[in-house]
Structures are given as C-alpha cells and as structure tokens.
Amino acid sequence: MARPAPNYVCQSCGAVTSKWQGRCDACGEWNTLQEEPGRTGEAAPKTSLAASKSKGAKLELVALRGESAEPPRAISHIDEFDRVTGGGLVPGSAILVGGDPGIGKSTLLLQVAAKLADGGEVIYVSGEEAIAQVRLRASRLGLSDAKVELAAATNLRDILSTLEAKSPRLVVIDSIQTMWSDVLESAPGTVSQVRACSQELVRYAKRSGATVLLVGHVTKDGQIAGPRVVEHMVDTVLYFEGERGHQFRILRAVKNRFGPTDEIGVFEMTGEGLSEVANPSALFLSSRDEAASGSCVFAGIEGTRPVLVELQALVAPSPLGTPRRAVVGWDTGRLAMVLAVLETRAGLSLAGNDVYLNVAGGLRVNEPAADLAVAAALISSHLNIPVPPHIVLFGEVSLSGTIRRVAQGDARLKEAGKLGFRAALAPARPKGETGKKAKGEPALTTYEVADLNALLDLLKDGSLGS
Description:
With 466 residues, the protein is α/β, with parallel strands linked by helices. It has helices at 79-85, 105-116, 131-140, 156-166, 191-208, 229-233, 280-284, 332-345, 371-383, 409-418, 452-461; strands at residues 7-10, 16-17, 33-36, 94-99, 122-126, 148-152, 170-174, 211-216, 236-241, 248-256, 264-270, 273-276, 295-302, 305-317, 325-328, 353-359, 391-393, 396-397, 403-404, 423-427, 445-449. The protein folds into 3 domains: 1-38; 79-278, Rossmann fold (3-Layer(aba) Sandwich), CATH 3.40.50.300; 283-430 and 440-460, Ribosomal Protein S5, domain 2, CATH 3.30.230.
C-alpha cells in the first residue's frame, strides 16, 4: 500500500498545500499550517460517474411552479430570539451560533433549551464544561426544573449513537470546535475535524428532523473559527455581539434559509441571565447627554426593525505628527471618507485633529445611512455647536458632498415620532413625492438637505431650533 502523502491545512481559512510554509498563500496568516494525514496514492477511476451505468433510482424532477407548505416551527417564546430565526426553529435545520468568549452564547442557548423542553425532549451536550458547571449556570438562571437532559462528551460517535436512540426535538452542541471523530487522526479543533463533525451533525438533523444548535468559537477578527464551508452547510448563521463594558447583547442573523437576514434581537445581560429588550431605541437613548456638542441621534434600520442610536464624536487638536482616528461601532474606512469629503467639499480643516467616534450602547452600525449623522456629529464637535436634541438624522454622503436617499425612510421617521422626536434631517425627496403618514402618527418636521454645505448652514444659523 502506498504511504499517505501529508497535507498541510491552514487553520484559519482551510486552504490545503502539499508542503509546509510559514505563511498561508490564501489568507496571508502566519504559522497557521498544520500537518494532517492525506489520502493514499490510489489510482483515479478510469470512468466518470456520468459515463458509468448506475442501478440507483432516478431523480424525481418537478416543475418550479407549485404549492409547498410552510415549514412548522418550534416557538421558544423568547420573542427576540424567535424574531431573528424568522419566527421559530424549523425542524431538521442546523443553526450555527458564534460570538466572543464570555459574551453569553451558552446562557442564551440554555434559556432557549429550557423554553422548548416542555414540547419535546431536549439534549444539551457540552464539550467544554462539566455537568456540574452547566447545572450551576442553570441554577443561577432559575432553570433547574427544566426538562433538559445534559451530557458532557466530545466523541462524535458516542453522541450520535445516543441521539439516534433518544430521538430528541432539539440538540445543543457546545461547542463544535471541541467535537472529534475517531475516523480522522487530527486533533479536535482542526479544520478537518470541524468540517467532518459539522457535516455529520447536519446530516443527522436532516435525517431525524431534530433541530441542531451548534456553538462556534470566533477568531480575533470576529469570524467563526474553522473553514467557511461550515457556514455554507448549516441553514442559519447567528452572531452574538456586544461590548464587555455594556450590558446590551445583539443577536444578528447573517444567513437564514427560513427567514430574513440581517435581522437583530436585543438582549440585556442581568444577574438572572439574558432578558429581552422590546424597545431597543429607548434603551440606547436612555442615558444620552442632550446638551453636549458632538452628539446626535441616528435613525437606522437593522433587518426589518428601525433602531435609534446615539452617535458621539470628538474632534480635538492633536499634539502628534500623525493625528489619531479611533472608531468604536462603525467602519474606520467610512469615517476616513466622510472626513475627506468634509474637508474638500465643506471647507472644514480637520487634518490636524484627533477624531474619536463612538456608537453608544455597544451596537455596531453597518449601513451607509449613518453618514449624515456622523458628519453632523463631527461638525458639531469641531465648531462646538450642539445638535438640537429633538432631531434625528439619516442619509448617505457621496464623494461629491451630496446627500443621497436611503431605504425605508418612512419607517425611520415613524420610529422617531413614537419616541418623541419632533424633527428630522433627511435627504431631499424627488419633486412631487410626499411621505406617507399614517393616521394618528405624530407629526415630524423634515428638513431636507441636498449636500453637506446645506447641513453646515443649518447648524450654524440655528434655524433647527432648540
């Protein structure tokens, strides 16, 4: 028998090479190539699958038009979790949940498991903690009486044998990086082990009809560790986000085959676990300092939900030759673009200043609609002119300095009206178009701005009111 040829697999991106090297050519990471057993030198089959005659059954082909029933869902009655998953857990689906260490992944999934235990058997498999540790967390959360069965194991063969015998409704695997299959010789957590174990668990979910929740570690860049093929295999990918200095936690869907993507659920970490936040806008604005310059309120959209959040900017003279640019909760490259447009199109001199930008509450804003609010906060801090506290802002800034329209403007205005805001700075509407106002909806004065110079004039002359 020919000796197996070794392969070197990158533990960051999963790229395979036949020889070791210090730097991965695919992702550029250093010291991530590890040796894993390769295939034996078998001869390739002389005939292709298409050319060979198969005795298997032919595929059943159907028309694209037709009626299909909506998949039944298991409702956890944790409204924020059900919102992110698209209305509940679909039987036979596989869900991958990633997040930083200590952010609350195990706490959230234990609460979900306890809620669903009344409707069927639920098994929680921990590969990182002993049973006593999981019981201690359940006691702290007040879930000791929940009908959840626990196991502390990492051998995938033993886990699948138990699951086949028990036929549970929900299975929680915490975490996929600790699972190992005895079919492979590599260590737990390597790319080949994570890929093989994930594939077997996804296959089990499709075959048995059970919902499988997989916990995934994340890298220093915030991405789920292991090969990206794992995210392709599962039906739903959720990220649990949050800053350690804040009590808020954001559950974000980045992939969902049974619901909308980019939907978020907001939780608050308390002594009794994670509690839902029904109105995140009010919570994010609860401790706002209305009198300070450099602060304004951005009306954003997260998935289908409008969210109002405070943006804080500080522009200060820099004693350094290279001024600092520090950003928390927004894209650093986007801030550099807004600063360049303000200097070139609006005539503000910001090159010699340190610039600090913060999204209050620990939320991360990804949409370009925050450009106008960021520009207003920077102008307010630089000129020491407070933005009136009753105004919300949204709009995208182009490289020419004009303010471009963004999606779901009416929903943003409606949410602002509910929270008591009286005015909004928004992009100009096309001629002849008017906003839709529902009956009984609070009236909101809209100041339409065409470019950054118009924004600068409104803030300087004080015509926005106080």
